[in-house]
Amino acid sequence: MLDIRLLRENPQKIKDGLQKRGEDPDVVDKLIALDIEIRKIKKELDELRKERNEISREIGRLKREGKNVEEVLKKVGNLGDKIKAKEIQLQNFQREFDSIWYHLPNLPHDSVPVGQTPEDNVVIEEWHPVRKLDFEPLPHWDIGERLGILEFKKASEISGSRFAIYKGAGAILERALINFFLDYNREKGYVEIFPPYLVKEYAMISSGHLPKFKVEMYHTEDDDLYLIPTAETVLANLHRNEILEEKELPKYYMAYTACFRREAGSYGKDVRGIIRVHQFNKVELFKYTKPEDSYEELEKMLQDAVELVKLLELPYRVVLLCTGDMGFAASKTYDIEVWAPGVKRWLEVSSVSNTEDFQTRRAKTRMRRKDGKTEFPHTLNGSGLATPRVFVAILENYQNKDGSITIPEVLRKYMGGVDVILPGV
Description:
The protein is an alpha+beta fold. It is 39% helix and 21% strand. The protein has twelve helices and 18 strands. The protein has helices at 4-9, 11-21, 27-64, 70-101, 140-147, 153-159, 169-187, 201-207, 232-235, 294-311, 358-363, 387-397, and strands at residues 122-127, 150-151, 165-166, 191-193, 198-199, 219-220, 225-227, 243-245, 251-260, 279-289, 316-320, 332-340, 345-356, 366-368, 374-375, 378-386, 405-406, 420-421. The strands form five sheets. Strands 1-11-12-13-16-10-9-4 form an eight-stranded mixed β-sheet. A three-stranded antiparallel β-sheet has the order 5-7-6. A three-stranded mixed β-sheet has the order 8-14-15, with no helix packed on it. Helix 3 (27-64) packs antiparallel against helix 4 (70-101).
């Protein structure tokens, strides 16, 4: 959520930021008008309540003096009706304001390139390991089914499209990736959290996933809970309604969870394999930092995620996203993409973002400076890493001519010593 003072003191900055993102800047004028009306009604309410309190004190005095209070009581009643009408009016204006305000994305940092499509993103680093394939590589769905480690038909019968069953060595490889990511990030100082997978609506609002992306979320109607689309949702609420001391920051957290997304806007895209699925595993990294440190911490988080891809010896590139391609809550985002030769595409395995104080304002998470003043800390999030596309990249980059898969060296201790997946293993 943006700072309301920015709307009142520098609305042009919001307009410029929205325009860079490809959003309609004219909504700012609507918000200004609503904010003026809301403050006007609040002032009128304060005056009416003050008048009612004064008359109530007068009634008490008149009663003590044994005087008739009938006329004064009528006046209080009329004031009560006016107050109630104003309160309803205020609620309506506030509801209209919030319906726009909570849909405004974060403003882009000055270092973010202006653009509207992925073609406007900037590749800032690219690396290809030595391993070369001297044959036509197969896509991961063919490899997985031939080896018997991925099952799509049965998953579809059980759960519908965009689900997969990992079998045998495939399930072990998936678990190996999760454990490798957790162990590596723990050594980097991230505190491990194992959170619930269902959260309340306000938690989704705090992280920025609601109300704008409700269509993408799985919702349990009877309990009014949401399946998390990412552990970021929980981690952004760990210090909800708290005041952190300056000396406590930065705080590093990580969490492994399953993630659930409807992919409502992507029907017809990536329908084969596990590139785009409704349920997937991810290790999420999350930081609470002092505002002046957040962009340095963003670069550190990026390198933590990049190092994982390097250790797996996968071809990768780092992309700085343009203003129109960033996530809703982000002020700056890097994507890490791996090359998948079977599908002949770069696949995103991590997004690393600084959300500045966008989430902490929603969650009412504050920090107290040494001088006692309070402000909102910054939060950062990043995948460290998401497993499906890493799984894809391993199958497609480490496939051999005989149909087997060589296991990356850093994963072998998690595979019970298995260094090659053969059919039927």
